[in-house]
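Changelog-adjacent note: as of this version, every example in the card shows the full chain rather than a window. The one below runs 254 residues end to end.
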Amino acid sequence: MKKTAIVTGGTRGIGLAIARRLAEDGFRLVIFGRKTQADNQTKLDTLPDAAEWIYVQGDLASSGDRRTLVCRAVESFGGVHVLVNNAGVAPRVRADLLDMSEESWDYVVGVNTKGSMFLTQAVARQMLKQPVEGKKRGTIINISSCSAAVSSTSRGEYCVSKAGVSMLTKLYADRLAGDGILVHEIRPGVIATDMTSPVQEKYDRLIASGVFPIARWGRPEDVAAAVSVFAGDAFLYTTGNYIDVDGGFHISRL
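Full-length structure tokens:
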């Protein structure tokens, strides 16, 4: 039986690469994005021809939209077996920690942490209603960031939001392990996407200076490859863990 994966933020960048990879792996897809399907159709058309998928429009920060997402997944495909919490936002304006506004904090944390928290809750409840198919009941994969552990004082709300996602990984892994649901986290580094394009020159300089042992930009496909492994059956005795997909940036060096 084919399994179903929800991918939030699945219409561009890392999310689109994840959707493509999971489709290639044989998953049916429920792709969640903020814009209309028509607005995203050109990118959705890049999914494999044989892919089975539906698109659900909504805002991760909205409880109603999160409920609709899970309901549409169940109505269309009968259940949910994998959740990839990929959707996320950056501050609209990068501001020093002493100048950050409450509005920016609420916006970033509201989507990245609160949205992921309560979508995971809804999906986990659905998974618990389903029988075990194969070697586990379900998999939840959180896309956080190297910023979960690395300080950037010009976007503190983003760092805190991703650190929160890391704790959600541990909490849900602890809560759901006994029910056969495994929870993992992927921490991308500098990945070539729309989010990083405004600071391309900065990261080009850092890469050229040797900050990254693997001296190149990361690609969305690098992250998608890690998702593919976690979504499959290769890791059945590990949960609540994370993997850095960051070119070795996390390595402390003298």
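Structural remarks: The mean pLDDT is 96.
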